[in-house]
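Structure, all two chains, one model.
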Amino acid sequence: MTKTRRDALKTVLGSVALSSAGWSGASAQSGGKFVYANNSPYDNLDPHTIFDTARAASRFNLYDGLYRWVDNPPKMIPWLAESHSISGDGKVYTFKLRQNARFHDGKPVTANDVVYSIERIIALKKGAASLYLDAIKPGSTKALDAHTVEFNLSQPSAIFLTTVPDILVVNSELVKANERNGDWAEAWLARNEAGSGSYALRRHDPAVGWTGRRFVEHFAGWTGQPFDDVEFRTVLETNTRVLGLIRGDYQGADGYLPYDQIQRLKQSPNVQIIDQESMRVFILALNTSKPLMNNVHFRRALAYAFDYDGFIANIMKGSVNRNPGPNPNNIWGTPPGLKGYSYNLDLAREELKKVTEPLRPITINALAGFSESEQAATLFQNTLRQIGVEVVVEVSPWSVVSSRMRNAQTQADIIPLWKSTYYVDPNNWVGELYGTRYHGTRTFSYYSNPEIDRRLDRALVSSDQEERRKLYEEMTQIVSDEAAGIFVYNTKWYGPYSSKVEGIRFSPVSNGQDIRWASLKRG
Amino acid sequence: MNWLSLVANRLIWFLPTMLGLLAIVFVLSRVVPIDPALLAAGENATAEQLQQVRERFGFDKPLPVQFLRYVLDVAQGNFGVSLFTQQPIIHDLVARLPATLELTLVAVLIAALVGIPLGVLCGLNRNSWMDHILRVVTVSGLAVASFWFAMQLQFLFSMKLGWLPLSGRIEGFPPTPVTNLMVVDALIEGDGEMLGDALRHLALPALTLALPAAATVVRFTRNGVIGVINSPSVAYQKAMGFPRRVIVWKYVLRMAMTATVTQLGLIFGILLAGAVVVETVFDWPGLGAYAVRSILQSDYNAVMGFTLCTGALFVFINLLVDLLQAAIDPRGAA
């Protein structure tokens, strides 16, 4: 790697600090058991097909990636890989694996396992696959020796390194032995585990959850008083999770509980709430491909007609911060001073006057089971009615909404939803939401603008951080001017944990479910 | 009609009933605005891969052909594979059925043990203060929302008094099952601690389910007793000088039980398929919780498998009820 390339890498990473810090070799004392109550089912443990942040626990406790995101603001630290280098043309990434990493069955983690893992991700086309499908072709990744792996990208990618933590490495020998009819052992790995992670799977019952035992030989070692056993349970009912935390049945639960429940938990001496500014933007996604929705004046009228302050103050109880653009407030890529839109029905009516085509009823498809999504839809329906726009509110489960989103014609006009963190780069938000290249997979808007696409094409290959910053800021400004979406707030994460637990390291990627850092308070 | 012909008669209807159920479930699953091929192939699948999945699972065929194929698969015990657990549906259902069965059995048992004596007492003391009070209680039992009642029980017995666990089937992760009926497994293994733990976990969800069921049983038993108590046969037994205790608990109860038994059977069937709310609130890993997750994830095969399974159980329970009724009152089977 040349000096220039190293400098370039440094700038590409931006806020990402690549550090070897993160653990020490000190020995650990024996800890107890950690029970986590989650609102999403652990019906599948396959790290290459599950990708939602709600179920990060099985991915990050049972498996390791080459690098790992920790803390907030997120830092990327070396994990299975000790270091990497990038070729001069930015297309070849070579990772050196650490020598002492082993899978739970004792087999060393090798470059062949990394190659098999990326091939499996690409072949299954589920989970994190969309991050790699454009850049990595099947058969292009090579094991140079037992501990050196080479990724040959089809084109330079400024975001590839930030997505590397999602290449979770499976024990290729074990997985291959359980393949049936070329299924990449998809059925087997849904119920079993083949990782090297901090915890090894003991039991899995899709109806209940899973338990793990601390992997004492984990390469990162252990410090403090880590938990010997972890249990991740599915507890769908919010009230049961909350009462369980107060009783001390659970030591942790998901961090996006309704705020009234957070306030209830704060009253309990058994519970501590760890609050962090997350990177999860609540937006009202606009399907800009549909008639009327493709009119910029109509979209601006919509943007002026949402009561941002009322929603945040009354429905969210002031627990979140206004986020005027598509990128979270706490990441680069948003132009300084971006104001976005404010609630002003007079301005909305003025914009509406510029719309020459006849109005039609607008459909808002809220997410079933997510009260903020449903409440935003109802609130918007009321304010839009005041400017003469009729709204039909539909409430559907995510699977229905996402299935409709595959086709611009079937997607609803407006969907109130969140854009979570899958990798820490503004491309995760403004790029994916508004780039034509992401239509049909990761866009929510079907927005298409050559000015955005031209900048995005450049931003995805540039190794110059300043250039990338400028490009994403320009894209964000265009998206705001064009009202391509309605941006409401950036979520605050209120992680409820037992007051006897310490050392929780929240990262917007792993959502506080990476339990290896946690331990029982001493004394 | 003897018992054999009664069973044969019900079995003859079993097939068309299940076919009807299959048809309804199949049509409903296909009108939902979701592409099943997309769910199976994954959100990043290319158009070519989607087409491959459509061909592999027959989604490209006309609906009648798809239906026929599904019926043939089901006839061979193949309900398909869950899109999310990646396991055969039949495995998922078999794994979860015991939890629901255990909960439902206990709830029905409580409902019968509480409801039948109270119903008899109300019937014998018609329009007394006790009858009025129990009428209010039973109407309330039917009217109260089960999720609200469940939360009140949790709040009182788990949070305030700390007597009973909040949720789950057993403390910690369940042990490797024998029958997967926790109480039965504890008895088989002679594990008193596990038995106590399983019963403590059963108490609140079973009570929640039992309240409206007991209310129904009280009402039907009361009406049955009132209908029988003034009948000529009871007058004859009184005239013969039989003790009141014998008349009530042997003759009156037996004649009055026909409607109650029917109701208990129906309640059992309804609870098997409908313990969704209670299973969700108490984190009870049964069929109801499975159905909720499958519906939320639009797991077609799982939803259809669950519906067929509970439908078949319902038909089977109705058959048992018919047989029990015939045993109680042979005139009905004639």
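The mean pLDDT of chain B is 86.
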